[in-house]
Design goal:
Blueprint: E1 2-7, H1 15-29, E2 33-38, H2 53-64, E3 67-73, H3 81-90, E4 98-105, H4 114-125, E5 128-137, E6 141-142, E7 145-146, H5 149-170
Parallel strand pairs: 1-2, 1-3, 3-4, 4-5
Antiparallel strand pairs: 6-7
């Protein structure tokens, strides 16, 4: 089971990146073949521009993955611009893939923002989403680490179910 974790935030202090790194660690501890794709390392161009070498590498990684974990922040109750560019330019061959969502938001009331990503992935590419979404806010972090035990437990459950359901979908 090859998994690509996409951290879509361009912020140097990204909390969704912290979530992505934690899931990467937990998946690797369970012997899952996974890599982190950090958009901060990519030279992203919009869909009407030529794809950059780093985008072509990202496309290849996404294409070879069996499933994806998408980390996102909330921007105006929706996905951010770099994730939108990734979806528009790098998701050509994701039809039917399994995916999970990790979300870091500024407040408690933005939890439905992840539904925009769900609608895009399920409608455009018939992807299958893990019903569990990790939703964390600023209060769940301290000193660039996850400080909330509830969030840490929720992430463990997310990883366990992601592996269980992902393997079942592949068999």
């Amino acid at each position: 089971m090859k998994t690509i974790i996409i951290s879509s935030s361009t912020s140097s202090s990204s909390k969704s990146f912290i979530l992505c790194k934690e899931v990467l660690i937990k998946l690797k501890e369970r012997n899952i073949d996974c890599d982190l794709l950090d958009v901060r390392d990519l030279d992203l161009k919009t869909s009407h521009e030529s794809k950059t070498p780093s985008m072509l590498e990202a496309i290849e990684k996404i294409n070879k993955a069996d499933n994806l974990v998408i980390g996102m922040g909330v921007h105006n109750y929706s996905i951010n611009d770099s994730l939108k560019i990734m979806l528009d330019t790098c998701f050509d061959n994701v039809n039917g893939k399994f995916f999970g969502v990790l979300c870091a938001a500024g407040g408690e009331k933005s939890y439905l923002a992840t539904m925009h990503l769900t609608q895009i992935c399920m409608s455009q590419w018939k992807m299958i989403q893990l019903p569990r979404i990790v939703y964390a806010t600023g209060k769940d972090f301290s000193e660039n680490k996850i400080s909330s035990q509830i969030t840490r437990d929720w992430m463990t459950e997310f990883v366990n179910e992601f592996i269980l359901i992902g393997k079942k979908l592949m068999s």
